[in-house]
Fold each of these.
Amino acid sequence: MTVPAVEITGVSKVFGTGGSGDVHALDGIDLVVEAGQFVSLIGPSGCGKSTLLRLIADLLEPTTGDISVYGKPARAARRDQDYGIAFQAAGLLEWRTVVGNIELPLELHGISKRDRRARALELLELVGLPDFASHRPSQLSGGMQQRVAIARALAEKPPLLLMDEPFGALDEMTRERMQAELVRICTETQTTVVFVTHSIPEAVYLSDRVVVMSARPGRISRIVDVELGPRVEGTRESTAFFAKITEVRAGLRGGPRAGQVAVGEHPIGVVDSR
Amino acid sequence: MNRRSGSRPDLSHVLPPIVAGVGFLLLWQGFVVARKIQPYVLPKPTAIWDQLTANAAGILQAAKASGTNALVGLLVGSILAIAAAILAARSRLADELLTPVAAAVNAMPIIALAPLFNTMFSSTSAVPRRLVVSVVVFFPVFVNTARGLRQIDPVHQELLQSYAATPWQLTRTVRLPGALPFVFTGLRLASSPAAIAAVVSEYFGGLQTGLGSRITSAASNTAYPRAWAYVVAACALGLSFYLIALLLERIAMPWRVHRTS
């Protein structure tokens, strides 16, 4: 029995001070992410998927419940750098070169100059930008910046990678290429990934499991196991791929297993609180 | 707003101010000659030029004395201002203490303190002038740096938090470099006033080495064109401080120059 990468038990998150204006972002979340899995969180805006990712990252604290990462509390996992993180905005430091940006986490954690330079160059190779080490972020396209951000997230060889819509701002062509790259990188590095997205094909293409969430309060409404095997050229055109897309879409619409007839934007009884 | 297409000045940028300046001098000269204006009212530019060349060595020496005071004051004031801004960005209490004090000091006519400083220190000391300059410089550098330090990209904040970075690591790797454009805006705003403060604070006695004391002594000897020559040198000093600040800004932030298209 191996320890799961992420174990979330009975987690809820309320933003606010306890008054009537409180926002119940997440409620009753239970989720286990096994080591080596690629898990996507998908759902409408306001379903708390980004909040859930930030809870795992210990950038936010849960109101109730427990989160453990590789058997440790989330805070200890953050201190031990058990995860790397990438956001929708690449968030590169414009005053550092590409290689300087990748070195940032290593530098903060006292890795020697020679070792971190070697690691950064190795990562640039991995993300396909070996010739851009001394460029400035402003000289790179959006897709290239995002590759650098992914390289930076992988700098300390974290067993877990957390990604918050990292391809959300990219055009469709770049996006598909980046998805294929990410699958390759994660397979090569044996990294566990929790990936937030609002794109159904993206979630299905990338994931072993797709966690479908519903909003207000954020809950897990269904978990779809995607068994498509190794991703190849034709994966996106396969019948199995489309079947999974249909299944995830049904989950998002609040299908039978979600329990409600319609999980709409304005459930009855909430009208007076707006 | 900071996107300049390149650092090389081309002729179309340099020519208009030169033409305007030469035109202005010609008008000035023509006006003084035509209206037969006395030199104690307004000397001819050519007379000022004659004085400039005749006293070149003395002017340079005086400019060096005033310039040194301005530079020392600028450095001391800026370092204190940047340190205070870092403190204000780190602690709310420090912010609430320092910001109103800085604003109050800025509202004071600081140069009016020069005679008081002169009596505080010995009359052969350069300290009073440097002190005045430091006080003048403090406010613009402090306000701009503090604003720059407060403006942090939320993504960078979360990223550094995910690295379990210490507050000082956050300041050093993200806040300070991110605030550099603001620091240099403050330095640029402070540079010319620093030179002006150094010159004007000499009007109130004390050491007789700088441009300001030469202006007052020339004027009291009714040598007006010579006084004007020293005024021109003071203008040049202020301008060169500004240009040096501008140059340093470019050197310190190469990533800003790279921003083309």
Note: Chain A touches chain B at residues 54, 57, 59, 78-79, 81, 83, 85, 87, 89, 91, 93-95, 104-105, 107-109, 136, 138-139 (CB under 8 Å).
Amino acid sequence: MSTVLSQVEVPAGVSLPIYMDNHATSPLDPRVLEAMMPYFTTKFGNAASRNHSFGWEAEQAVEAAREQIAKLIGATAKEIIFTSGATESNNLAIKGIAEMYRERGNHIITQVTEHKAVLDTCKRLEKYGYRVTYLPVKADGLIELEDLKRAIDDKTILVTIMAANNEIGVLQPIREIGKLCHEKGVLFHTDAVQAVGKVPVNVMADSIDVLSLSGHKIYGPKGVGALYVRRRNPRVQIAAQIDGGGHERGMRSGTLNVPGIVGLGKAAEIALAEMENEAAYLRGLRDGLKSKLESSLDYIHVNGSMEHRLPGNLNMSFVYVEGESLLMGINDVAVSSGSACTSATLEPSYVLKALGLGDDVAHSSIRFGLGRFNTQAEVDYVAAKVIDIVQKLRELSPLYEMVKEGIDLTKIEWQAH
Amino acid sequence: MAYSDRVIDHYNNPRNVGTLDKSSGDVGTGLVGAPECGDVMRLQIRVNPETQVIEEAKFKTFGCGSAIASSSLATEWIKGRKVEEALTIKNTDIVKELSLPPVKIHCSVLAEDAIRAAIGDWKKKNGVAEAAPAAVQAAQ
């Protein structure tokens, strides 16, 4: 009887399951938790309480976190607005700018592989009479700067392009984009959720006007994020989307999530201090994983640019093996797939399709998201396991057999269903 | 999504994986699905010309765990049955046996299609007329 059950041995020091999906979320760094703890218990004050020490204590903690975050991205503390996370930050940035600058123009430029928090926000604005240009990406996942230059017209108020993609880890040329936007007098927002703390992002050097970031992608807590809003050259104005007590300079009302903010600040501080070493470490793990897979398996390829890429990201297609069945075989390893079968819509990843990949290749993709707490032993185990399961599933794959026999799969009349 | 124990069992220990010689006169081959849709099943049968019994059934499937399990189960069920008997297997039987969730029903449909395609190919090769559709039979 054939079997897909894996016999790969678990190395000493590796405990299962292994978490390798750090683009989805990252574990909380114990140092972050330690910093947060007092703000759940003894230091529970409302940062907006101005008339007693409980409030002052909370406010002080919030202002310290503002400094820590500002420092990570080259901003000043007053330019940081706290939110509930990056989805809110993206909504606030795009809707808030669209509303505030409506008289100047109604045109927004974005690109096709943005996160849904950006794409769906733009789609909603289209319903309200805004015009949105969705730039294409090249096969490597990067936008063409010339396309952006051509798309900007006298009605353009905002360009929103992500710093790093959440699926393929591709880094957009944000410095060049920022420079171009400033030359043209157009505001530049970047969803930097995946990039901040992983690669250098500097709002001054990169000419960024508005930037979204999140706590739980940088080993901080969930439910807290921030929006950088430039105060000088130019001074960016944003219409609040949540009204109330006028917190956060009137841009985002609501009692501040003090423990979350303290955690985000601590996470930012650690990220800044350790970014360089961590990036080199993750790049080493990632490249090792890639070369191990490539040396044992045929018909596999990397999706997106290897050169312009987050250090911890590897997105690969294992052609002739369906992604969900692969995930099922490596069920003691947490990764994700661009396969339709893993999504509610039964559509394969729109990001991979935007690169020009066929649906069949998109169905075969796996995203490895390496993070701070992954080890070499874990990577070795994951590589061995993936190789084992891919080989077994290919013994089960009629497509692999046909290709090995020299049959051109594109010449077959498949019956789509 | 959580898989049923039956799906996991078939995925971990697929029955009847393999390839039969498709040029052989007593072998019928069904190839259904499409790579773009994320599942392709190939189901093959070897039929005893005297008894019309499916003596061997083999499959290979590119697809999710439910697709692999559906085709594995299909080979298990048709093996040892007469051709006409095998045609009575419905996708809903597979859904029930594997406890497939609604989103995976298309996997069972594909498995039923694969059985029909393999038997159809064998009939064509051996000059066996297709059974008349049920409605026609009822009218006769």
Note: The longest strand of chain A covers residues 313-318.
